[in-house]
Amino acid sequence: MRKGEKFIWNEDREKSFEELKQRLVSAPVLTLPSGSGGFQIYSDASKKGLGCVLMQHGKVIAYASRQLKPYEVNYPTHDLELAAVVFALKIWRHYLYGESCDVFTDHKSLKYIFTQRDLNMRQRRWLELLKDYDTNIQYHPGKANVVADALSRKSGMVAGIKVEEEIIRDLERLGIEFLVSGQHGY
């Protein structure tokens, strides 16, 4: 719509409005992993924190974020983006170890990390960790990496996800059936 143009409410606008209302009232739901394989990680880093999303077959399994530690604030962008990938692999290792996983990052050069020659000790250590996993690092433009981008900038948004996962695991071990409901899954 342009400035000065007369606004006319029509069927297309009504349909868009109804869809928007529906999306605003239905929160995204976290699901438990189903079987194996088909995992994707979307990761991002900013000067404030690291953020990542674990998905399987197009459904969100978990969100995670954290603030940068004081010594990480001085890391170059390349190292921060790699730190976000390592962060995701470490916290979700129980899902990802032994499974193939596509890692999407908005930092193009991470695709070529395994072929780079001049690496510092931190990068070498992280590469050794990456080699333990069956990962395929792919470039994903920043504009499309919205959720991980938001998590990296506001790292306190998703507190409690790790605690929730531990509770779910404890309930499963005890053989207790449960229903996850509510806006935040608890």
Secondary-structure topology with pairs:
Layout: H1 11-25, E1 39-45, E2 49-56, E3 59-67, H2 77-91, H3 93-96, E4 100-105, H4 121-131, E5 134-139, H5 146-153, H6 161-174
Parallel strand pairs: 1-4, 4-5
Antiparallel strand pairs: 1-2, 2-3
Helix pairs in contact: 2-4
Rg computed from alpha carbons, rounded to a whole number of angstroms = 20 Å
Question: From the 3D coordinates, which CATH architecture of the domain at 39-159 would you assign?
Answer: 2-Layer Sandwich
The profile of the biggest β sheet is: 5 strands, mixed
User: Looking across the biggest beta sheet, what order are the strands in?
Assistant: 3-2-1-4-5
Strand tally: 5
What CATH first level of the domain at 39-159 would be assigned? Alpha Beta
Order of helices and strands: HEEEHHEHEHH
CATH superfamily of the domain at 39-159: Ribonuclease H-like superfamily/Ribonuclease H
- How far apart are the first and last residues' alpha carbons, in Å? 41 Å
How many helices does DSSP assign? 6
Large-scale geometry: globular
CATH fold descriptor of the domain at 39-159: Nucleotidyltransferase, domain 5
Strand content: 15-25%
Average the pLDDT over all residues and give the rounded result. 79
**Helical coverage, percent range:** 25-40%
Query: Which class of secondary structure composition applies to the elements?
Result: alpha/beta
Q: Enumerate the spans where pLDDT stays under 50 for 5 or more consecutive residues.
A: 155-160, 181-186
